[in-house]
Amino acid sequence: MQLEIQNLTHRYGKDKIALDNISLTLKPGIIGLLGPNGAGKSSLMRILASISKPGQGKVLWRGQNIIKNPDTLRKELGYLPQSFGVYENLTAQEFLLYLASIKGLPSKIAAQKVDELLEMVNLTDASRQTLKGYSGGMKQRVGIAQALLNDPKLLIVDEPTVGLDPEERARFRHLLSDLSGERVIILSTHIVSDIESIADQIAILNAGKLLAFATPESLLEKMANAVWHCIVTHDEVKELRRHFCISHSVRRSDGFHISIVSLEQPLPNAVNVEPTLEDVFLFHTHSKNSANTLENIAC
Ligand SMILES: Nc1ncnc2c1ncn2[C@@H]1O[C@H](COP(=O)(O)OP(=O)(O)O)[C@@H](O)[C@H]1O
Ligand SMILES: [Mg+2]
What we know:
By secondary structure, the chain is α/β, with parallel strands linked by helices. It has two domains: 3-214, P-loop containing nucleotide triphosphate hydrolases (Rossmann fold, 3-Layer(aba) Sandwich); 221-297, no CATH class. The chain has eleven helices and 14 strands. The strands form three sheets. Strands 6-7-8-3-9-10 form a six-stranded mixed β-sheet, sandwiched between helices. Strands 2-1-4-5 form a four-stranded antiparallel β-sheet, covered by helices on one side. It has a four-stranded antiparallel β-sheet with strand order 12-13-11-14. The model is unreliable at 290-299 (pLDDT under 50). The structure holds adenosine-5'-diphosphate (ADP) and magnesium ion. Adenosine-5'-diphosphate (ADP) binds next to strand 2 and helix 1.
């Protein structure tokens, strides 16, 4: 069971290139799709969910071309779009039962499944209240529940943690870990901490291009000698910012403690430190790193 993305290119109008020749093979596990706003994450996910068709390229699910023949995929797909609308006059339970009937679940199975999912997303107590009174985080949890109605083998969730508070985020990460196994789960985000502890693989997307695709360990390994710590003055920080990618900066009594992501030693007194995934992400998406530098390190 795998999802193969082959040379996918997608444009809006003539000039706007949202996806630029993306190729990826996704196997069961959690894949974190990481990229800043506008990177192309939602465009890619809509194509993978067979909502929109790409300008060029192919997507194969279990070997079947989903662009020509989307039905095999749709039966096994759970999708949470980035903006998820609900019918505010329905209760969570009624809304999920309604979506279950659209997905063709027999009513007896649907009732049980809906109760199970409401429990899973911690909404059992509120399940008979209308969605009008739900907070953004609660609506998002309803969205996550609907994506799981058909026990999907391919689960695509687009920025699912937006609107969730830290506790809900943590609960959501646990939920995804519990669900992983024999499923391909794709989760997009621009927040590294959403995926660093749970993703089996991370794909970094920026300006429509796939810059890296590897396990978190291997991404970190490739950056082993590329993060530097040093203590500098305020004026030096300003100057360094013009030439380097500064991933952290903290003001202390002895000056600014900064981390610089660079393949070369940025200052004589700079010492190498362990990279974090945040450093990796910033390195790949930072404009100060030329395409040439990226090639040395991209996976
Ligand atoms: N319907 C659309 N029409 C025109 N441009 C679009 C449309 N949807 C997205 N874009 C543009 O395509 C690029 C990628 O957008 P998107 O896939 O939404 O990125 P992300 O989800 O990573 O924020 C952005 O520059 C965005 O402005
Ligand atoms: Mg998006």
